[in-house]
Sequence to fold (171 residues):
Amino acid sequence: MARRALQAINWSALAERIPESERTALAAFKSKSDKYLQRLMAYPEALPKIEWSYYKNTISTPGLVDKFQQQYESISVPYPADKYTAAIDNEQKEAAAKIQKFIQDVNVSIDAAEAELNKLKAMIPYEEMTMDDFMDAHPTVFMRTDKVTTWPHTEESQEDLNDDTPDEENH
Fold:
């Protein structure tokens, strides 16, 4: 494992993509990120090199410097395993798939709306329509005169008033 830190983040491009209400949260996050990066960069990536020959010449105890050198060079700082990059990549792929599905759904809605708009453009203008033309254009909205209905004249609110069969309850 090696120490890695993203050196450059395009904060202005990121700020353009978030809503105005989240700008203060982004500023706080940027501040924390900058402080963390500054602390991380304050430490060297590798352990500092020691001039072992100087200590071998000045310390008279035999083998002591060699022992320290061996222990120093065997030091290994374990960096945490990267468990999050794969999860983030998976989330990014899932989000991209959701975005593509959303785009397809919106395009279907746009096509339906354009078809409805073209239908309205092809209709006779309302000012020039007769009642029969309006009834043909909007059969669900128009109150039909050939069928007795009660207010609010919707299919759900109607009892079957035109049914000529007698009810068994009434006889």
